[in-house]
Specification:
Helices cover 2% and strands 48% of the residues. By secondary structure, the chain is mostly beta strands. It has one domain: Neuraminidase, CATH 2.120.10.10.
C-alpha cells in the first residue's frame, strides 16, 4: 500500500493533519504557491472516509491586508473544539516586511466554520512568536502547544511550550526548552506522563529530541535524531511504547520524507528509512504530518513539494500531497512482532 493523492494544487502547504472521530481526516495548510512570500490564507480540506478524495472545507484564518497566515499549530481541546494557533508575514513584492501577529482560530463544528481571536490571551512575549506543530491534551483540562522565535544566523533561536489550564480559553504559563538552539518543535504526550518534542535546531538544522519529565518542571535535551538539513519532524503515537517520527530530508539531491521508529517510548530509535522521494529537481519539500488510521498500522502522511515526479503532466507545481502507507510494508517482521500488542496495534 503506497497511495499518493493530491490534497491541494498551487499551495505551498505546511500541512497539519488531525483525525476526526468519524474516521475522516482534516488537513490545514497555507494556500499560496510560495514559501511564505505571497499573500494567502490558512484553509482546511476534508477527506472522505477512505482518505482517497479531498474537498476544501473552509478558511481557517483569512489573510490580513498585505499579508498572509501560514504558520500553524493544530489540535483538539478536551471539549472537542478544533484549535489552530497561527501567524504569518506581511509581504511586498515577494519580500518579507514584518510579522502579521499571533492568532487563535477555533471551530466548534469540526472545521466547517472558525472563530478567530486576533489577540488571544497568551503569556507575555509569546505574542511575537511563531506557533508550530500540534496542540496536545495534557491532564484534566490542560492543553499545550509550542511556539518559537528566531533571531537570525549566529543568534539564539528560542522555543516555548505554552500551557492552558482551562481547555484553551486562556494560556497562562510557558516553559522554555531547546537550549537556545531550537525552533520548529512538535509536541507529543506519552502515557507515562512525559512530554517529548521533536525539535528542529537552528545551527545546522537537524532534529533533536527534548523531554519534559512527568513532574512537568524541567526540559532536557536528549540528543540528535537526524542528520543536518533533515527537518522538521512530526511525532505519532502508535501504541503505549511505540512512536513514529516522520521528517523532511532537505539535503540537495536527496529530497524525501524519512521515518524512524521507537519501541521503548522514545528512549532509543531504530535506523531510519525513506517513505517517499521527490527527485533531484525538487527544491522545496517536506514538513510531514502523520496520523495513525487503524490498529493494523496503516498511516496517512501529508507533506508539500514544489516538484513531484510521479505527476508527469505538470510535476513542477507546488502541491500538498497525502500518502497512505503501512508499517508492514517497510519494517522487518521481527520489528512488527515487537510493536504488535494486540490491543493498540495488531499488524
Amino acid at each position: 500500500m503506497n497511495q499518493l493523492v493530491v490534497i491541494a494544487t498551487n499551495a505551498c502547504g505546511w500541512p497539519n493533519l488531525i483525525k476526526l472521530n468519524n474516521g475522516q481526516v482534516l488537513c490545514t495548510y497555507f494556500n499560496a504557491p510560495s514559501h511564505g512570500l505571497m499573500e494567502g490564507d490558512l484553509v482546511c480540506s476534508l477527506s472522505d472516509r477512505n482518505r482517497k478524495k479531498w474537498k476544501k472545507l473552509s478558511v481557517v484564518a483569512k489573510k490580513p491586508k498585505g499579508g498572509n497566515r501560514m504558520h500553524l499549530a493544530v489540535g483538539q481541546a478536551h471539549n472537542g473544539d478544533l484549535l489552530c494557533f497561527n501567524s504569518g508575514f506581511f509581504v511586498k513584492d515577494e519580500k518579507f516586511v514584518g510579522f502579521s501577529g499571533h492568532w487563535l482560530s477555533r471551530s466548534k463544528d469540526r472545521g466547517k466554520s472558525w472563530e478567530v481571536q486576533s489577540n488571544p490571551v497568551v503569556p507575555k512575549g509569546i505574542e511575537s512568536t511563531i506557533p508550530f506543530g500540534r496542540v496536545i491534551q495534557l491532564e484534566n483540562k490542560e492543553l499545550a502547544y509550542s511556539s518559537y522565535r528566531s533571531h537570525g544566523q549566529g543568534n539564539p533561536s528560542e522555543t516555548w511550550m505554552i500551557i492552558s489550564e482551562d481547555d484553551g480559553e486562556t494560556w497562562t504559563r510557558s516553559l522554555k526548552f531547546g537550549s537556545n538552539d531550537s525552533n520548529e518543535a512538535t509536541l507529543c504526550k506519552l502515557e507515562d506522563g512525559r512530554v517529548l518534542a521533536a525539535t528542529r535546531t537552528h545551527i545546522d538544522h537537524h532534529v533533536k529530541l527534548c523531554e519534559l519529565s512527568n513532574q512537568g518542571k524541567r526540559w532536557k535535551d536528549k540528543g540528535p535524531l537526524t542528520l543536518p538539513m533533515q527537518h522538521p519532524a512530526d511525532l505519532t503515537i502508535l501504541s503505549e511504547k511505540c512512536l513514529l517520527m516522520t521528517y523532511g530530508i532537505r539535503n540537495r539531491g536527496l529530497m524525501g520524507i524519512g521515518a524512524r521508529i521507537s519501541i521503548d517510548g522514545g528512549i532509543t530509535w531504530r535506523p531510519p528509512w525513506v517513505i517517499h522521494q521527490f527527485g533531484s529537481e525538487a527544491k522545496d519539500i517536506g514538513y510531514p504530518s502523520t496520523v495513525l488510521l487503524d490498529k493494523k498500522g496503516n498511516l496517512l502522511t501529508a507533506f508539500y513539494t514544489d516538484y513531484e515526479p510521479s505527476l508527469h503532466k505538470k510535476p513542477n507545481r507546488y502541491r500538498v500531497l497525502a500518502k497512505k502507507w503501512s508499517l508492514k510494508d517497510w519494517l522487518h517482521p521481527s520489528i512488527i512482532e515487537l510493536i504488535s500488542d494486540g490491543k493498540q496495534l495488531n499488524i
